[in-house]
Amino acid sequence: MTPILLRVASVMLACLLSLASYAAIDVYDFDSPQQEAQYRGLIEELRCPKCQNQNLAGSDAPIAQDLKQKTFDLVKEGRSDGEIRSYMQDRYGDFISYKPPVRPSTWILWFFPPLLLIVLIGGWFWQSKRRQAVARGQSRAKTESTTAALTPAEKAELDRLLSRANASTDSTDHDISSPEDKK
């Protein structure tokens, strides 16, 4: 029974491995190595509109196949990298490029990450300075100013509650709330 099982497993493995041979392989005939290098560089740089975070070289989506073919055609026509990028951006927008141009519509892509980094570093610096000031005892002025902000009525109520709290520590009842608070 083991030889039969081994044969079935071998046949299944062979079938699975043969499926890889049906994968699409791009075969393009270039006139020169420079054209091939230009094509390879462009498909590595251009993003697949369907896959979003995958370049054309690594995508098997139908739209990526079409874009590869169009890139090949434009390279064969002798167009420059700039012309091909411009054509793709005009047709598919700035999203097609991993390096979008700097213009008002893409400012958030270019300037938000550095600004966020600056704000985070500034916040971290401010927080560390504040902690150092608290550790040195420079924050006492802030606590004293909050007690001075109490009105005379609030001070009288605070004194009354504190005196009741001190008096109740001698007895077993620790309820410091006034009858008005219980209503």
Gap between N and C termini: 87 Å
Shape: elongated
Number of strands: 0
Any idea what the radius of gyration is? 37 Å
Tell me the number of helical segments per DSSP (H or I, 4 or more residues long). 8
Pairing-aware structural class of the strands and helices? mainly alpha
The description of the largest β-sheet is: none
Helix content: 55-70%
Instruction: Show unreliable segments.
Output: none
Strand content: under 5%
Mean pLDDT: 80
From N to C, what is the helix and strand string? HHHHHHHH
Please characterize this protein's 3D structure.
The protein is elongated and about 95 Å long. By secondary structure, the chain is an all-alpha fold. It contains eight helices and no strands. The protein has helices at residues 2-19, 33-45, 62-76, 81-92, 107-136, 140-148, 152-168, 179-182. The longest helix is centred in the middle third of the chain and has 30 residues, at 107-136. 9% of the residues are buried.
Brief summary:
This protein has 183 residues and is mostly helical. The chain is built from eight helices and no strands.
Write the layout of secondary structure elements.
Blueprint lengths: L1 H18 L13 H13 L16 H15 L4 H12 L14 H30 L3 H9 L3 H17 L10 H4 L1
Helix pairs in contact: 2-3
